[in-house]
Design brief:
Number of helices: 7
Strand order of the largest sheet: 2-1-3-4-5
Structural class: alpha/beta
Shape: globular
Number of strands: 5
Distance between the termini: 30 Å
Bound molecules: zinc ion
Strand content: 15-25%
Order of helices and strands: HEEHHEHEHHEH
Length: about 170
């Protein structure tokens, strides 16, 4: 079992999360899923991505996966050791596994898996701290930062998604 960190807020957390939730909100107003991720490495933003499962016809095109791919490509590295991920939402097991395998050391998110309906979440509901406990190294997890803003974007999406079309969380 991995040792648990005591989560600490860093000075850039709120600023970066505000960018994440603001972009999520803008997407929600257009009927798009408000799931956005930003990767920071050594205090520098290296990638930003939004969920594109619907537009790419790719069920694995979650914001976190696309952000990891972009960051690794930009850095020309197969490892993102020491990177931090900021996400509107708690990553699903696929995305959290990708973070773990990529060498991330810190995760900050707003809304939790339990805030989403079964249809929005898509099943296999395992929270990140549970999944992390199976690993042999810890990832610091800061949960619920700007959760109210993430929930506000979710509410807007729920109203707008049916008027537009693309679903796909
Ligand atoms: Zn995911």
């Amino acid at each position: 079992m991995a040792a648990q960190f005591t989560p600490m807020h860093h000075h850039g957390d709120f600023r970066t999360m505000r960018l994440v939730v603001a972009r999520g909100y803008r997407m929600a107003t257009r009927g798009l899923p408000p799931f956005v991720a930003i990767i920071v490495l050594a205090d520098r933003v290296v990638s930003v991505a939004a969920n594109s499962a619907g537009s790419l016809f790719d069920p694995t095109a979650h914001a976190e996966i696309l952000a990891i791919r972009r960051a690794a490509k930009r850095l020309r590295s197969r490892s993102l050791r020491g990177a931090w991920l900021y996400s509107t939402w708690e990553p699903c097991p696929m995305c959290f596994s990708a973070l773990y395998k990529s060498g991330f050391t810190r995760l900050v998110y707003g809304g939790s898996t339990s805030d989403l309906s079964d249809a929005e979440y898509g099943g296999l509901r395992i929270n990140c701290s549970t999944l992390c406990s199976f690993g042999d190294r810890p990832i610091e997890i800061v949960a619920g930062l700007l959760r109210e803003d993430a929930l506000a974007a979710l509410a807007v999406w729920r109203v707008n998604r049916d008027r537009h079309c693309s679903y796909g969380s």
